[in-house]
Amino acid sequence: MQELTNIREFFRRVGIGAEKIQEFQRKLYEKAKANPKFRFYSLYDKTYRTDILEEAYRRVKANGGACGVDGVTFEDIKAKGTVEYLAELQEELKEGRYKPKPVRRVYIPKANGKKRPLGVPTIRDRIVQTAFLMVLEPIFEADFSESSYGFRPNRNAHDAIREIYKYLNWECEEIYDVDLEKYFDTVEHWKLMRLLARRISDGKILHVIEQWLSCGYVEDDQHHQSKRGTPQGGVISPLLANIYLHPVDKAFERDGIKNISKGSIHLVRYADDMVILAQMNLKKGKEILEHYAERLGLKLNKEKSRRLNLKGEKKVEFLGFQFHRVQNKKTKNRLILVSPSPKSQKRCREQIRKLISHKIPLKVQDQIRNLNKFLIGWINYFRLGNASKVLYKLCGYVMKRVRRLMQRNKGRRGYGWKRISNGEIYERYGLFYNYKVQWL
Length: 440
Prior knowledge:
The protein is of the alpha+beta class. Helix content is 51%, strand content 13%.
């Protein structure tokens, strides 16, 4: 009974703390929105508030992840005592003794076979970055443009896809598919700090952020200093990336033509992935982008950045989706179809083959359990739009792979269509079956 009381008290405290934090963030947002030129000068002491640090730790722990260069894990923190650990971190921040450690560099595979560098900060640094994010994000959210969708509260990739779909239906069919060359590695620190200082005058806040940018990374036991770039993997890196590209967004708001009758120009950006859509003035959009990219010290990848026209190319890809224009033969009406791109479908099948195979030393149920985790994530993302045909084929492909696995495990050939019913696979083995499409 006492344990139940303690649990209820814990959730009550968490709920109250979350409400206080949300109220604090709302006030920051409203202040920033009402005063676009106001510079916030007293924020650092808010980052080590007890409720802020506790919530930051909860979020970091929920996200999981590996340890950093110090080797400290969540189990180590629990053994020491979470309250004591956070109190010690709070004192470091309060007394100005906090100093971030370099990130641990690892590499993750990319779709094209290459590898993407990823920085893994220590858990301690992830907690502080999360605390800073909770304080700074509402301020910059008040400034950010409607054209930006990546890594922002209450916005996601589907919103960006819907926006592109809307513009294509407005006949903005001249398209510039933009690729920034090594964006996260080329961000110039002094320019980013200047953009931050437009809103933040608290020197302690800026000093800590500057330390995160310059602390470098460790690879093969060697410490490398960072003079440019923001490490991919840092909690606060997406916010900094959006702040750095914000001048581009504002330029299109200010200089882009919005009147449809005069040929509108629109930017849709998801982090460093972006497309420009226009009715007839795409050249002007390219000039705006190139001008601000040069000012920010960014380079366009000329090989991957492409000028397209939906009338001629008949397809455009963005964030794994393909936009395809078709014409109704009877009514002659033009329709825009949205579905998973061929590349996305190919990668999906490759992953399914890795997860379902008689060569894997796991039981059928365990392989299906792993497959379900992948399918739920993939389908929830790609079920948008006109994906019914793709998902129908995928459902058949998955069923054949599972049946093939079950037959091979029993030393049989074929797919066992007469021996094994679909109902048995779905009910007994729990294979995922919800392939329902979500309309735009």
